[in-house]
From TrEMBL:
Lineage: superkingdom: Bacteria
Species this protein is from: Williamsia marianensis
Keyword Lyase: no
Bilayer disposition of the protein: Multi-pass membrane protein
InterPro entries noted in UniProt: CopC/D, Cu-R_CopD_dom
Residues spanning the membrane: 40-61, 73-94, 114-135, 147-165, 171-195, 207-229, 241-261, 282-302
Localization annotation: Cell membrane
Protein name: CopD family protein
Keywords, in A-Z order: Cell membrane, Membrane, Transmembrane, Transmembrane helix
Length: 308
């Protein structure tokens, strides 16, 4: 990896403040109530988990085998994901019991509704961490599909057991929505981390785009139907904190879809014919990932905000 390439890839770290920016916007929109404190850690957990999921599918998109440095990064991200989930579950227990986080005991933690899902998700993330660690040393023993399946399960457990998951058909809708969003964002972040050279982008970008168009359609349809299930009337879009966050997320999605459409119109043909440099492709990927991170922050806030 060249120094210039490494420096540019480091811009992906801006996704962390970008996701918190989206979360801050969610808090501002939901005042005087707002998202629960656990969403602070939950937003980071989402970013890390999505990226791990994306790394597990790089080969499916025509990318190279993951190198030991990338596998070590995947292991670190999975560990960050697990720790963030545990911290989020602890903060959630503190909020539900009315105690300060430092005052929450083990008994308090386990008797609060909602912590079990966080623990199971954290165990999935820890299992992914272990799988990635073994993958580094013994590549032939671990199938990327196994890592991807565990990552998908860890990403789904919390959302499908939330308030929308209790509605008829809600669990299926949220599963489709979360997996589509996770793959779209995570795979693009993974490509930004792993693809090298014009030839690399010419190979993977058409495949990514082909999958992405259908997953984005699934993301939009499931999101619209889920919103209709959650809201009792259109007035709740501006009269409730949940509705205002949902509206902001929708605006963010429209902006993201406009960027994605422009990428498909300009970037895809140029990359496919080797008419764009590696650094220009990387810059385009990072810009889209950072915009995704803001929308993910809004989604993390929405997921811990009561519908009414």
């Amino acid at each position: 990896m060249t120094t210039a390439g490494a420096a540019r890839r480091e811009w992906l770290l801006v996704a962390v403040p970008a996701v918190w920016l989206g979360l801050l916007l969610a808090w501002a929109l939901a005042r005087p109530a707002g998202p629960e404190a656990e969403s602070i850690a939950g937003a980071v957990a989402l970013l890390a988990g999505m990226t791990v999921l994306g790394l597990s599918t790089v080969k499916l998109l025509g990318g190279e085998e993951l190198t030991p440095p990338v596998l070590r990064l995947a292991s670190v991200l999975a560990a960050v994901w697990a720790v963030s989930l545990l911290v989020g579950a602890w903060l959630g227990a503190a909020e539900r019991t009315g105690l300060a986080p430092r005052e929450v005991g083990i008994n308090d933690f386990f008797r609060v509704n909602g912590t079990t899902a966080g623990l199971i998700a954290a165990m999935c993330a820890l299992a992914v961490t272990l799988f990635c660690a073994v993958w580094i040393r013994y590549p032939s023993l671990i199938a990327p599909e196994a890592v991807g399946a565990l990552a998908a399960l860890g990403l789904l457990i919390g959302p499908v057991t939330g308030h929308l998951g209790q509605l008829t058909g809600g669990a299926l809708l949220i599963a489709v929505h979360v997996l589509a969003a996770s793959w779209w964002c995570g795979s693009l972040a993974a490509l930004a981390l792993t693809v090298r050279g014009r030839k690399g982008w010419a190979t993977v970008l058409p495949v990514f785009s082909r999958y992405a168009q259908w997953l984005v359609l699934a993301l939009i349809v499931s999101g619209v139907v889920a919103a209709l299930l959650e809201l009792d009337s259109i007035s709740e879009v501006w009269s409730t904190g949940y509705g205002r966050i949902l509206l902001a997320k929708s605006v963010g999605m429209v902006a993201l879809l406009a960027v994605a459409a422009d990428q498909r119109r300009r970037w895809l043909p140029s990359a496919h014919t080797h008419r764009i440099s590696e650094q220009a492709s990387l810059r385009r990927a990072i810009v889209e990932v950072l915009l995704m991170a803001v929308v993910i922050g809004l989604a993390a806030g929405l997921g811990t905000t009561a519908p009414s």
